[in-house]
Write a structure and sequence with these properties.
two-stranded antiparallel ribbon; CRISPR_associated_Cas2; 34% helix; four-stranded antiparallel β-sheet; metal-binding; globular; alpha+beta
């Protein structure tokens, strides 16, 4: 399951820029990867783990701005159309899961 965090935060004042930087840093600390400007994603192996991460994101929300969290399945993620300029590329692969025997 993929969890996306998309945000539009104000950066007009030094305090707002600080809040933006702290939020972005904390997303990275939670294991999110930047896909695009203000769009971060993380692959999680189960819905339960995704819900736990969503709770943690809610705990670090900045006081202003708009934040959206979207959860999609791996199959839905694979259907994403990705373009770099006019060239189409495949979407990112989920990380390999450790297999224990």
């Amino acid at each position: 399951m993929w969890t996306f965090v998309m945000f539009d935060l104000p950066v007009a004042t030094p305090e707002q820029r600080h809040d933006y930087a702290v939020f972005r840093k904390r997303l990275l600390e939670l294991g999110f990867t930047k896909l695009q400007y203000s769009v971060y994603a993380r692959f999680l192996p189960s819905e339960e783990k995704a819900e736990a991460v969503v709770r943690r994101v809610r705990e670090i929300l900045p006081p202003e701005g708009q934040v959206r969290i979207l959860e999609i399945t791996g199959k839905q993620f694979e259907k994403m159309h990705v373009f770099y300029g006019t060239r189409q590329r495949p979407p990112e692969n989920p990380p390999q899961q450790l297999e224990l025997f």
